[in-house]
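Sync notes, pocket subgroup
Present: LS, DG
LS reminded everyone that the earlier model was apo-only. Rerun requested with adenosine-5'-triphosphate included. Inputs:
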Amino acid sequence: MRMSRLFLRTLRDDPAGADIASHRLLLRAGCIRQVASGVYAWLPIGQRVLAKVAQIVREEMDAAGAQEMTMPIVQPRELWEQTKRDVDYGPLMFRLEDRKQARYNLSPTAEEVITTIVAGELESYRDLPMNLYQINWKYRDELRPRFGLLRAREFLMKDAYSFHIDVDDLKRTYQDMYDAYSRVFTRCALTFRPVEGEAGEIGGDTNHEFMAMAAVGEDDVVWCQKCDYAANAEVARRKSETVDGKADAPAREKVHTPDMPGITAVAEHLGVPAGELLKCIAFDLDGEVGLALVPGDRDVNPAALAQAVAPKRARLLADDDFAAHPHVVKGYIGPDAESVALVIADPMVSAPHGWVTGANEIDHHVRSAVLGRDFEVGEWADLVAVVPGDPCPRCGSPLSIDRGIEVGQVFELGTKYSEALGALYTDEAGAQHPMVMGCYGIGISRIITAVVEEHHDEQGIAWPAELAPYDVHLVVIPGKGDEASEVIKTADELYDALANAGVDVLYDDRDASPGVKFADADLLGVPVRLTVGAKGLKRDVVERKLRKTGEESELQITDDLLTVSAEELRTAVL
Ligand code: ATP
Ligand code: MG
């Protein structure tokens, strides 16, 4: 491609509103342009990268035995009502009506559609397993679209769905997809970690998220320094046990703590560390009040609490709720508050200890509250949010926490969708069963954010070879001397020779200064830069520079380089 003809305008300065390096660089390098909040146009350079990521995913899906198809982006809302996910997705779903007021939505994902299609096509155990995928645009009206392609409202996803006679068969495909995902992210040159994930609205049991490790990631990844335990912080747990035994503490004593509704102020006032306090978090439990207890220096992990009380739903009390429950005194809640339906505590609270805690009375706390003497716990559950250094639930070694970008997720779904939508198969004996399903997503456009976050420097992007929009960035510097036309002629010949050898070349044939050309080459990030200039040609050489390492070398450009075999030319240049 000749840059003089390319639809590309690079930006020298950082665009306003782009908060992370990848967003800035993708805009500056002319890969994408924002059209609406979280909605982007893909310009030719960006389009080539997107196509390359999609192709890697396609190759690995095909190799894993999945078959490509395409489903519509417009989906009938009825299908979502049948699985009740219409409600679960809530405002995240882009909803629309046609001229007859029939209700539709834009595809945020496609379990309902694929399950309905499969229900109509497959009926026997002989037809299974079946694994189907598409690469298609998805729409989610995200609360906070941000960081460019990282959290967009329109984004490209690969979504695959597998159908099985039983869980064992599902597990085989699940493992194949897990392995295929590892190959995809390795080919994309990402540093990644598969971690135990949260199921969210999708439901189901086992699932793993593939996290590209990056400081800008929106997820916390908990991982063990010793064994292979790794989990999204939402589902991560620490090794914990309840301990028996009563604290040998003096009698409970009320203390005056005026205007001190927070842990820190009380701890300071009483001169004790925050961990000596007992934190009592009040929540609504389907209309009743529950209390979650953790040590004062720890936080409750909301996802852990939700899991502990499921299928009931926990919601932290708001000011209105406190008004409705006067015995639960905001800022001064004790574990023995009246009319509480459930007291649930983390095992850390079982340590024999005289706790400082709320007195259920404004401006008052108590000292030496003892479990089994002054208050009771109804249920024990892992509730605390894991912090670095906590013991690994598998091996007890210290845990670490780093940020990650979720680039993919694999789920064992079970029969939730097949039961709701009638995807049944007949077994050998003639009996009918719901198909057992798995589903598998990859954020193709989001991968590009993760790749640029990992592969860039001050000057611009440094694309990994497999994703680069071009293989070679050919720069011609004709100079002002008599030899200018000869230099251009050589560069043109090299461009043709490389093209014939099957090398994708971006040829900077523009009438621009060397400074501008080199700055653009660094910004665009094609892995190999070749420079044809008057100085080099005097010695019959072309300069070769690698974008990633800055390593420079020279290629002899005697008549040979232009006449060697395509294979030899490729090897010399790439
Ligand atoms: P998140 O937790 O980040 O909102 P999710 O778990 O809801 O994502 P999935 O339903 O698992 O997303 O979708 C599959 C993949 O699609 C994700 O792993 C992610 O890579 C990608 N993805 C999801 N939402 C977005 C988005 N708003 N913008 C870009 N990619 C997205
Ligand atoms: Mg997910």
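DG: The domain at 253-380 is CATH 3.90.960.10 (YbaK protein).
LS: The radius of gyration is 30 Å.
Action: DG to write up.
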